[in-house]
Specification:
By secondary structure, the chain is α/β, with parallel strands linked by helices. It has three helices and 15 strands. Strands 2-5-8-11-13 form a five-stranded parallel β-sheet, with no helix packed on it. A four-stranded parallel β-sheet has the order 1-4-7-10, with no helix packed on it. A four-stranded parallel β-sheet has the order 3-6-9-12, with no helix packed on it. Helix 2 runs antiparallel to helix 3.
Length: 171
């Protein structure tokens, strides 16, 4: 049986999606675009993600579940202590050469299947310490420390009637 230290050391070896992304960013900054693209494609093949070398990312970014299915636009700036779970999309409604950015400030948590999409030709900021819930869709600024949750589910019966699922009160 292995000790916790050996298990932790074993997990830290190998190409994590965070390490591969940081490597592709460093290569791009050094003008080695073809090599940066190759590392991006390796990351994509291993973890089914799209993490562009043109983004600005803090070195302590963490992915939950290896960031499987995560898609992030080039014009994204990610601060320190950010954790992004799987199947997250962070998209701009403008080209990669536009001046607009999505800025994710420090200590933000983004839940699985969340979508962050900028307004058309505009910036978007997720404030420091904000929490984006699983499945939430964000298309406007989120103030620091706030949480965003998805809309309540709606049940559509065969006759077309609709009922909103509501949480039962705790007694």
């Amino acid at each position: 049986m292995s000790t916790p230290v050996k298990r932790a050391r074993r997990r830290s070896l190998g190409p994590s999606p965070e390490r591969l992304w940081q490597l592709s960013i460093r290569l791009q900054k050094r003008g080695l675009r073809p090599l940066a693209a190759l590392v991006k494609y390796v990351n994509s093949a291993l973890y089914h993600n799209s993490l562009p070398p043109g983004a600005t990312v803090s070195p302590d970014l963490r992915f939950g579940h290896h960031g499987f299915g995560t898609v992030i636009h080039t014009n994204v700036v990610i601060g320190r202590g950010v954790k992004i779970y799987h199947n997250v999309t962070i998209a701009m409604r403008s080209g990669s050469k536009s001046p607009y950015r999505i800025v994710i400030e420090d200590n933000v948590l983004i839940g699985a299947n969340a979508v962050i999409i900028s307004p058309h030709r505009s910036d978007l900021t997720i404030g420091r310490g904000a929490r984006i819930g699983a499945g939430a869709v964000v298309s406007a600024d989120v103030p620091p420390g706030c949480s965003v949750v998805s809309a309540p589910a709606v049940v559509i019966a065969p006759d077309g009637s609709r009922t909103t699922l509501q949480r039962q009160p705790v007694e």
